[in-house]
Amino acid sequence: MTMPVMEPDLDAATLKTWARAIDEGPFSSLCWGERIAFDNPDAMTLLGALAAWTDRVRLVTTVVVPQLHDPVALAKSLATGDVLSGGRLTVGLGVGGRHEDYHAVGADTATQTMRAMAERVAVMKRVWAGEKVTESVLPVGPPPVQPGGPELLVGTLGPKTVRSAAGWAAGLAGTTLDLDTDQQNALFDVARQAWDAAGKPKPHLATSFWFAIGEPEAARAQVRHHLLRYMNWIPEEFVDAIAPTTGWSGSQDELLAVLRRFEDIGADEVHLIPTSDDIEQVHRVAEVIADLG
């Protein structure tokens, strides 16, 4: 379950309620994403709070963009989060889809590439391995709880990106707009083959999609409302054109059927993305997962 970090007017009480409900529920992971030029919580600050508010669930960034950060400082922040959470951190990384986030922090948009991301991952892994990356007296710490650092996933939609990440990632933190399981399985196959060619264990296969549980018309309207806010860099008429088929909306029984379809193609996880901060959505999904077995 993903935190409602892209919803408006959030406060600490709402975020804490969601975190505790996810931690106490049947969910395998608690996820949250990063944007800069948007009214959402800072991903690294929230990591500290989530580590304190939860005890069980895995914490997964979906995703952080390393090119928006100094890689040494980012490695230190993530290692701290791993310590505070007792080694429960998984880090999804991506190049990001918006130039405005790069401009907001003075990052070079020419680095919005998989190669530039891999270079920063290499620096972060050196930090986590305890190597000195500067002429400091001591290496940059703290050391992460997980040996070698948190598990890394690549956030991507395309096969070329998947192949390029096989050398450093443990799997995928993907997304699907239209819930096409055949297309998703084809991407999973690319990952399986790339990881096998790299001599690595089977990749962790995760995908995600926006969701709304409720009566058909109201639930679809909820998804549209969320997309209009989140996709604020896209003209409204284009968002309206994709809104009827983007993400998922429907009943709890229909969600159960969708999750079974992803289970059938070998998905290890589905990271559900809420389109409302209504905590009842979390409780209703928890009931679906109980039926999933």
From TrEMBL:
SUPFAM superfamilies: Bacterial luciferase-like. GO terms for molecular function: alkanesulfonate monooxygenase activity. Residues 12-250 form the Luciferase-like domain. It holds the Pfam family Bac_luciferase. GO terms for biological process: alkanesulfonate catabolic process. Keywords: Flavoprotein, FMN, Monooxygenase, Oxidoreductase. Transmembrane segments: none annotated. This is Luciferase. It comes from Mycobacterium adipatum.
